[in-house]
């Protein structure tokens, strides 16, 4: 485990902090309208997790249709949203787990297991969306999956990393709690050279 200054016990807040960062990125992905956008001018298409909007080349107003009318749209939104809700629960559990004086490491490992479930749900939503969107929605011009979709993947990658750390943290229980005694090295007098 990486040593963190004077005491690793202070480092315990890094994992909940990373989960908080994953929540922020998840909120941006859920609220952002940049899941799919036109790559170059004229910008005639943009989509979020919830709707797809198009406009004519000379038109200033967007015409939007809900993706919740499609089964795959509901599936992508539901799986990503379920993963996000479990992520918020994991964040709350992590704050509770690291706030108590005596850290329950089996509890921490359970949070890691839940984070793998979060990652699975989010990955399912993030894979369903582009595959079915490209099949079902007529696209005009060059389009790209954009910044909000990227935030969804970034949140998922952070969750996967945190899941591994939460699952492996009990292996370094003594280091985290500061129970390691210092190691002293003794050299015998006959091997030590003296200055006269």
From TrEMBL:
It holds the Pfam family PMP22_Claudin. One of its GO terms (biological process) is apoptotic process. The keyword Cytoplasm applies. Gene3D superfamilies: 1.20.140.150. Keywords: Apoptosis, Cell adhesion, Cell junction, Cell membrane, Cytoplasm, Membrane, Transmembrane, Transmembrane helix. It is a multi-pass membrane protein. The chain crosses the membrane at residues 12-32, 77-98, 110-131, 151-172. This is p53 apoptosis effector related to PMP-22. It is found in: Cell junction, Desmosome; Cell membrane; Cytoplasm. GO terms for cellular component: cytoplasm; desmosome; plasma membrane. Belongs to the TMEM47 family. Its main location: other. The keyword Membrane applies. The gene is Perp_0. It comes from Bucorvus abyssinicus (Northern ground-hornbill).
